[in-house]
Amino acid sequence: MSNNRFEIIDRRRQNKGETAAPEIISAAATETTGNKSTWKDVPNNPAYMVVLVGSNAGPLVSGRAIGLRADEKFFIADYFLPPIYPEHFDWTVESRKRLDTFLDCDCTSAGPCGVHEMYLPQWLEQDKQRLEMIGSRPVPEPVEVMMKADQARRASQIAIPR
Description:
Elements: E1 5-8, E2 23-26, E3 47-53, E4 60-68, E5 74-80, H1 91-100, H2 114-136, H3 141-155
Antiparallel strand pairs: 1-2, 3-4, 4-5
């Protein structure tokens, strides 16, 4: 950790004949300390949640992995979820794979590292292609029947109290 120091001179009262003693303030270190190669050993780290992410096509549902690295930096990895997915599909495994790429990386709050500058657009493209591929498949029959029943109910002129 560096011990940068700088001087602040308050000149606001200068015209009134008052002088203020300069204050010496330690600058916050920009370097991080700690291990960048592991996730912090705390309960529920990484954590997983489902979020809506805005896009040009409207909101998309995303499975999000959030990790707190041992150097106290947190990272987020999204994995866009299709509206219908197969049995035994575990999006947490996929989002965790992406999250783990942030171990030992040099990403900062100012921007991604070189590796993630390359990965982030690739992940978006992979998600887009996967969603398009799933969207081009026929809808499973149980879902189709449910959608038709819902359409018939909405088309009905019978008032249904809720």
